[in-house]
Fold these 2 entries.
Entry 1:
Amino acid sequence: MSKLGNLGARLHRGEIGYDFVGKRWIWYGVSILITVVAIAGLAVRGLNMGIEFQGGAVFTTERTSVSVSQAEEYAEEASGHDAIVQKLGNGALRIQVAGVDTGKSDQIKETLAEDLKTDPEKINADLVGPSWGDQIANKAWQGLAIFMVLVVIYLAIAFEWRMAVAALVALIHDITITVGVYALVGFEVTPGTVIGLLTILGYSLYDTVVVFDSLKEQTKDITKQTRWTYSEIADRSINGTLVRSINTTVVALLPVAGLLFIGGGVLGAGMLNDISLSLFVGLAAGAYSSIFIATPLVADLKEREPQIKALRKRILAKRAAAAAKGESLETPVVERTYGDRDAEDAEDAEGPEDATPAVVGPRAQRAQPSSRGRGRGRPSGKRR
């Protein structure tokens, strides 16, 4: 644990790091592959929409020894439709049948009571009309669209349009993967699923904004220096917030994993399954996209600007000239602020620039400054 903490501190200080932006095409390829699999799952299997979206009836029985498979057979024979049966934590059964009207639900209830050998009054029936299910689906899509529009507007005002576009791509990436997993796993899509999706979108956006804020701060007056390219500074921003992103993601995933694997898997709580799966997949996808998708995409877009292109050419030419002269390419560690001409002059006086991104590999130790005026006017240099 101490080694891990030391590694995190060194990453935060910029002493070591990983070239995320330089290897961005690997991450793009991985994301495209996962997205294609998710879309294929949606196309082949489709989503298992709950009765809240397509209408139907839900029957909840008392504690019974009837198995889930046997209850499914009883429900399908009684209704003539496919049924979904879940075993609840107290031994009761939750039987869901889609496309059932009010008149038929009473008949199904009586038939189920006979098959399960229980009193019809002890079976609770909840009905949802198809028109109400359509309204819920439309409201969910409207809420998602409004959320996306507000996110783009806010990021465009607070940062810039390139960061807004990158964040939007990352959010669509997270939604697609989460929905695709739902289709592949076959979990039921309920209002709890929608709540989980909106929650993970907010979390993913928070993680992305943290990196963007660091990047915006470090790239102020970037064209007034000739030490780092925009992509290299983007790498510094990712590495500086990497440990924070990992820690917050792990801490958030632990209780969600408890809901998914214990609450939903062991206890059999249906609603916990619906919301916890979207949270679990979405939190992991959001952390991934904020590091490997959003910031590298911003760097790609920024490197297309004429000023940033010209800056990159100047930096590469300066490094090539230093390499041709056979001078040392070790970069001194100098605390500086972009745009500070005094610091820039001090760097130029100390030696040539590094030919590799600053975040890759350890950096040189700072030379300790000698005390000014020490021994001035005294041959021995000793104090009296």
Entry 2:
Amino acid sequence: MFKALLLEKDDAGFRAGVTTLDEARLPAAGDGMVLVQPEYSTINYKDGLALTNRSPVVRSWPMVPGIDGAGTVLESQHPAWQPGDRFVHNGWGAGETHWGCLAGRARLKGDWLVKLPAAFTPRQAMAIGTAGYTAMLCVMALERHGVAPGSGEVLVTGATGGVGSVAIALLARRGHKVVAATGKASEAAYLTGLGAATAIDRAELAAAGGRPLQKERWVAVVDAVGSHTLVNALAQTRYGGIVAACGLAQGMDLPGSVAPFILRGVALAGIDSVMAPRALRERAWALLAAELAPATLESLMTEVPLEGALEAAQRLMEGRVRGRIVVRL
């Protein structure tokens, strides 16, 4: 028996709560499957949507949410994993179509797991989670494009969120001048503490109707917001620059123009973390282990017990959270 956060939806409506489940209810064992004990999980934006029923994230009911987990392997039917191994898991449809990691037990495909870097405890790995791993994928995309420290300002939108917070820390450590866009003026000290050179009001980017080409400013952008914010960021990106797009906090639409692409040669790089191949995941986690200090991770995280996950998800969706929510299991 183990505790889990269980989401249910039927003719009586949507329900979410912590309950006790029998291990027999987990997805079936079989070739390639691994039984794990998550010690920590997180609440990402997608988890928040699922836990508050604000978007049809969950596609199979009932569902144990939690796209992230870190802990210990208990049983394995996969050749790469043995009992006692330490793992980290991100994405792959967990919490959407497959029971996830906001629980004391999970059964996952071994191919989905990555070895927990020795530099991290499970708690520290979940202070990074999908949001931080996505941020690293964004930074890797910028650098593949040739963005070098000292080449100009790098804009990070959604700066106090999980992706934004980790992106600022990573970019600043690598020597980039980071400008953080936020709607929370009171968090300026938090952002500069992570390494941002300055902060701007997100309202400068969020309005509709901006010109297709605006004053060139950013050599690169990490955008977790989408919609008009992404359009305006593209319009302000310098000739030959790049925008890494990984989120939709403002919206899924892209109500803009091709002008930045065909007149300034701006590149738009889509960043997917959910189905990213294993080699890319391992590279990202190795870089995270080398570049994020424990003190930085502590400054990013707020820890809650499993029983506090629903309330934390509500705060996240109301924009009352900065950095990362770590859930203790």
